[in-house]
Amino acid sequence: MIVVQSIAECRSQCDRLGPLALVPTMGALHRGHLRLIELAKEHARHVAVSIFVNPTQFGPRDDLTKYPRPLGKDLQMCREAGADLVFNPTVAEMYPDGAGGIVFDLPQLSRVLEGEFRPGHFAGVCQIVAKLFNIVRPASACFGEKDYQQLRILTRMVEELNWPIEIVPCPTVRDADGLALSSRNQYLSAEERQRALAISRGLFAAREEFTGGVRQAERLVATVRNALSALPIDYVAVVDAMTLQNVQKIERPAVIAVAARVGSTRLIDNVILRS
Ligand code: AMP
């Protein structure tokens, strides 16, 4: 496995490898990321993983400085998972003139849900993913459904800009007790982790109601809110899976999306509803 830090070297190694699938990450890898790498291997002969904690997607109150960066362990995991190349640039390499620059905006998709609570977050995500796409020039790129809104926005970005890149969605990987894997779970104490289980429990209960025939979004939201009653909630919403706009009666694929706080940790999760 090759590890590169410079854009120039990344480009030349990617050219040498031929058609690639890219897995963009911020490191602190877990089984969810490994599943993305496996999926990437099913889509292309070679797999590149980027590990970069992108400052432009963090807000002033976010956890940029304390975000975990266990690089040695991450590289080991990439190696064991069979990645061919890891791109691990510095902030100065990616943003030599500071973080300003171009702003990508897909307002209809990026202002709702996370966008309401983390202004500018998706502009930062689109900026870094666009840069990575131009550096690696992958044939496909894998993103997790855990960050459903991000997946939807990036899919739309690629469609609107006619980039010849296939966006491959990966189902959310969870611990046996239901908690969606996240690099941020390591901030949780044992007691907080137990309380965090209310999120997946609430979502699963609502999904069961949907499977049982309930189509009123309001009822599903009430079920999730009920399960989360002990946690501060940023939002619980049932949105159209394509437009991310709120729906009242579910007649097309939809997503129940949640953001809640457990102690000082903010967690997001969702389930996709398809009849
Ligand atoms: P991150 O390192 O948190 O930026 O995530 C990198 C990629 O891994 C994104 O496409 C995420 O959606 C995906 N991802 C994170 N957690 C999970 C999970 N539990 N299951 C599936 N994909 C995930």
Main sheet: strand order: 1-4-3-2-5-6
Shape annotation: globular
Q: How can the largest sheet be summarized?
A: 6 strands, parallel
What are the distinct ligands in this entry?
adenosine monophosphate
Contiguous low-pLDDT stretches (5 residues minimum) are none
The proportion of strand residues reads 15-25%
**Whole-number radius of gyration?**
19 Å
Would you list the SSEs in sequence order as H and E? EHEHEHEHHHHEHEHHEEE
Number of strands: 9
**Spatial gap, N to C terminus:** 42 Å
Structural class: alpha/beta
What percent of the residues sit in helical stretches (DSSP H or I)? 25-40%
Mean pLDDT over the residues? 97
How many H/I helices? 10
Description:
The chain has 275 residues and is α/β, with parallel strands linked by helices. The chain has helices at residues 7-17, 31-43, 71-81, 91-94, 107-110, 114-117, 121-136, 148-160, 190-211, 217-227, and strands at 2-4, 20-25, 46-51, 85-87, 140-144, 166-170, 233-240, 254-262, 265-273. A 6-stranded parallel β-sheet has the order 1-4-3-2-5-6, with helices on both faces. Strands 7-8-9 form a 3-stranded antiparallel β-sheet, covered by helices on one side. Strand 2, helix 2 (31-43) and strand 3 (46-51) form a beta-alpha-beta unit. Helix 9 runs antiparallel to helix 10. The longest helix is centred in the C-terminal third of the chain and has 22 residues, at 190-211. Adenosine monophosphate binds at residues 25-26, 32-33, 35-36, 143-144, 146-147, 170, 172-173, 180-183. Residues 25-26, 32-33, 35-36, 143-144, 146-147, 170, 172-173, 180-183 line the site of adenosine monophosphate.
